[in-house]
Prior knowledge:
Blueprint: H1 16-28, H2 33-53, H3 59-70, H4 77-83
Helix pairs in contact: 1-2
Amino acid sequence: xxxxxxxxxxxxxxxxxxxxLLVKAASLDGMDLTAFVLVSAIERAxxxxxxxxxxxxxxxxxxxxxxxxxxxxxxxxxxxxLMALPALEKFDA
Length: 93
């Protein structure tokens, strides 16, 4: 883990047995508890973000998407109402 100055602070509460397990695992991995918890949490967070950034479609789902893109339906009244709203960039300060 890089040795950069960290300014944000986090705290957590856990049971004594969970802490002992984390301390043991950190020690076995050659890290202190903070580094072990941060590395593990960051790895998991990156995976969660990655998993939610992709859309996986079945073959049938892909065919349905292509068909919908090639043959779009008529806009509904709600869609027309939404498109009539002013563009967001007009509200930027």
